[in-house]
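User: New here, any thoughts?
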Amino acid sequence: MLEALIARFGRRFVIGVPMVFLLLVFAMPFLVVFKISISEVDGVRFADLVTWSDGLLKMQLKFTNYLTILFEDDLYLRAYLSSVGFAGLTTLICLAFGYPFAYFLARSRTDIRPGLLMLLMLPFWTSFLLRVYAWKMLLADNGVFNNLAIAAGMIAAPVKMMNTPFSLTLGMVYTYLPFMVLPLYANLVKMDLRLLEAARDLGATPWQAFWRITVPLSRGGIIAGALLVFIPCVGEFVIPELLGGPGTLMIGRVLWDEFFSNNDWPMAASVAVIMVLLIIVPLALFNKFQAEATQGARA
C-alpha cells in the first residue's frame, strides 16, 4: 500500500516542489512588477486595477508606458539593443576563452584539478565591487597599465581605456568568465574518451575529432554557459556604471534612472517587464524547438 502511494504521488511531489519554488520566487514577483507597470499612481500609492463602486465593476489598465517604450521614445529601444549587443559580445568572448580553459581543465591530471578549480573560483572570494574598482585603477589614464607602457617606452601619452566600450566589455568578460567555464568543464569531464580513440582508429585527425565529436557532445555545456553569461549581462548595472561611464547606454542604467532619478515606478516596471520578456520568450522558443528536435531524433 505504501509503495503504491509513493509510486503514485512521488513523481508529482518531485515535480511539484520546484514548480512551487519557481512560482514563489519568480512568477509572483513578476506579476507584482507587471501590476505596477499598468497601474496609475495615486499620490504615494498605486491605484487598484479593479474597483467596485455603486454596483459597477471598473477595470483600469494603463498601457501608455508600453506604447512609449515601443513606439514613441527610441531611448529604450537603443538601450535594449545596446544591452543585447554587449551581452552577446561578452558571451562570445567568454566562450572563446572559456572553452580552451575548460577543455584543459577536464583533460588535466585528476590530482591537480582541485587546485585549478580553486584558482578559477578564487576571484569570488573577493567582493565584486572591489574587483570592479580594481579595474578602474588598472585602466585609468594614470593607471597601472598606462604607467607601465609609458615607462617601457611603448607609448608617449596615456591611452584612453576607461569609460569606453573596451573597458565595459573587459569588465564583464572578467566577471562572467567563470560562469562559462564551469558548465563546460562539468560537461567535458564526463565525456567518454573512447569515442576519440575510435575516431583516431578510423583515421580522423585530432582537429576533425574535436569538431565532430567533442564540440557536438559539449553542446549542452555551451548552451548552459552562454545562458549563464548572457542573461545577467543584459541587465548588468554596476559594471557599465563604473567602467562604461555616463555615455554608456544600457538597460540597467535606464532602470536605475527611472526608479530613483525620475521616481517613475510604472515606467521602470514596464522597462523591466519588457526586459524579462526579451530574455524569456527566445529561451522558451529555443527549448520548444530543442525538445521537438530531440523527439524527432529519437523517432
Observations:
- DSSP finds 13 helices and four strands in the chain.
- The beta strands are 41-42, 45-46, 50-53, 56-59.
- The domain at 63-298 is CATH 1.10.3720.10 (MetI-like fold).
